[in-house]
Amino acid sequence: MLCQNCGVNPATLRTVIIAGGVKQELYLCEECAKKRGIPFNKMPVLIKLISGKGQREATPERVCPKCGSSLKSLKETGLLGCSECYNALRDELAPFIKRAQGGRENHVGQRIPPRFMRPKTQQTEELERMQQELQQALAAEEYERAAQLRDAIRALKAKGGEG
Amino acid sequence: MQPSDVALSCRIRLARNMENLPFVAHMSMEQAEGFINRVNAAINQAQEYKLLRMLDVGDNDRMRLVERHLCSRELAMEPKGALLLDQSETIAIMINEEDHLRIQCILPGLDLYEADARSRVVDGILAAKLPYAFDGQWGYLTACPTNVGTGMRASAMVHIPALVRSGSAEAVLAAAAKLGLAVRGFYGEGSGAPGDIYQISNQTSLGVAEEDIVASLTETIGQIVEQEQRYRRAAMAQNENAMRDMVSRSLGTCRYAYRMDFLEFMKHCSNLKLGVSLGLVTGLEQQRLDALIAGGQSASLCAAEGRLLSEQEENAVRAAYVRKALEE
User: Fold this and answer.
1) What is the pLDDT of chain B when averaged over all its residues?
2) pTM
3) Interatomic CA distance for residues B200 and B204, integer angstroms
């Protein structure tokens, strides 16, 4: 719904005015409401009414046990308080991060800190070698061999409980 | 006409944070100081870097670091912050900016691959000694959750006067924005583009490997460079006289003016760089013009004068500096 005053911005506020003894409901954008001298914080927020957000706010918000940051403080400052926040607020942060990163949700890339590198097992090395061979076979259009490799990779993954 | 006449410089920046240490906004001064010392001990045993604590650096010198793009405005204003700067001013590690660490490698021209390789070496040294915060799903964890993943920001400065003059710059930059790149003016977020110099960088840091960020930005910038070069050639072919006139007028103004504000200065520098690139100005090199641009910024002028300058004084000092630099 558009602001009934300017007709340009979406209406976010609802107010009631009484003019000449006639009660009228008016939907306004924030700017027009300010222009009319209606104090913003005293206005019932339309969005709150529709989404029932007002109710949800009554339930306590999840905070990081280590630094006390929350989604609310993130929205205010744009920043989290410590690395533990990512664990504590994982569910809340996931959609936020996904939106900011154009729909991407998972880190890719080989460059990870040494502490987080898992030593390669013989099996993963074998798997990597076969996957490389598979790419080569596909590039060389040796489809029969590619199919064999594909099946072997599947079997190995199943054995490792990864497939 | 060299590609480096268009792509002036490039930069890789890696954001890193520590486990078990609050992010910078939540850190005490003691924690901040302790962390600066830890980083310095981890990487600077051979004293290859100059350690500049923001509290110890004077106001004007901090602004000079900003003008030379070695340090962000935010770090310059951060009492908990410090900068580790190597002698060649290629590696600049910002400590306690928004993130605990922002490792930067800055190189002339468009060589993001090399900048990536060098920043990776520094990152490796620090990663071996400091407990980086890292998450299986989100990669390197950052103070602002929009920077997670690789924590990498790759960027390049491009000088595109011919595109700007032809009115095509907006379309070209909008296309870059559509590819998920951010376009900013000379001084980063919110600034205009004095001297027709723009900064182009990746926006997505999650779900794209470092190599792919570097490759796709290099490709897009390469295309912008080609387009700018094409427009420069076209402008020369269509009206060499007009180009010669514009460049010569700038040279004349620089040689004889007694007052010059920053925007006018950048405009003339832009024209002169274009003139050198097209062979319309002789006896001047791009490097000298780049040094001229660096020296003509406010804080550098104040530093050269040894005192703070009012705007009027600054404009007079700048004109004198330019006259001297371009003396016949």
Assistant:
1) 92
2) 0.77
3) 13
Please answer whether residues B228 and B278 qualify as being in contact, where contact means their C-beta atoms are separated by less than 8 angstroms: no
Whether residue A101 and residue B205 make contact (CB cut-off 8 A), yes or no, is: yes
User: For residue B260, which amino acid is it?
Assistant: M
**Worst-scoring range by mean pLDDT, B57-61, B119-123, B243-247?**
B57-61
Residue B262, chain A, CB below 8 Å: the answer is: no
Q: Hey, are the CB atoms on B21 and A82 less than 8 Å from each other?
A: yes
Partner residue opposite A82 with nearest CB, options B26, B140, B204: B26
Whether B148 sits inside 8 A of A107 (CB atoms) is: yes
| Strands across the sheet containing B7-16 | B49-53, B82-86, B91-95, B101-108, B7-16, B152-159, B197-202, B181-185
Give the angle subtended at the CA of A40 by the CAs of A35 and A42, to the nearest 5°.
Answer: 130
Handedness of CA A69, A70, A72, A76 (dihedral sign): positive
- How many Å apart are CA B261 and CA B301, to the nearest integer? 12
Contact A114 B120 (CB under 8 A): no
Residues in chain B within 8 Å Cβ distance of A100: 145-146
Distance separating alpha carbons of residues A95 and A103, to the nearest angstrom: 9
Q: Check B204 against A86: CB less than 8 A apart.
A: no
Average pLDDT of span B72-100: 95
Are B206 and A80 a contacting pair at CB < 8 A?
no
**A39 band by pLDDT with thresholds 50, 70 and 90:** low
Rounded to whole angstroms, how far apart are CA atoms B43 and B93?
A: 10
Q: What percent of chain B has pLDDT over 70?
A: 98
Mean pLDDT of the region A76-90: 94
The whole-angstrom separation of Cα B37 and Cα B42 is 9
Residue A55 pLDDT > 50, yes or no?
A: no
Q: Report pLDDT for A28.
A: 73
Which residue from A minimizes the CA distance to B137? Answer: A106
Look at residue A112 in the predicted model and tell me its pLDDT.
Answer: 87
Identify from B26, B27, B28, B189 which residue to disrupt to test chain A contact, counting A C-beta atoms within 10 A and taking the largest count. B26
Evaluate if residue A57 carries a pLDDT over 50: no
Least confident of A138-147, A151-160, B263-272: A151-160
ipTM value, please give it.
Answer: 0.83
Are B196 and B161 in contact by the 8 Å Cβ rule? The answer is: yes
Closest CA to B90 of B53, B50, B138, B140: B50
Which of B155, B280, B135, B259 is closest to B206 using CA atoms?
A: B135
Q: Identify which of A106, A113, A116 has the shortest CB distance to residue B207.
A: A106
pLDDT tens per residue, range B287-324: 899 889 989 998 889 888 888 899 999 999 999 999 99
Q: Are B323 and B254 in contact (CB under 8 A)?
A: yes
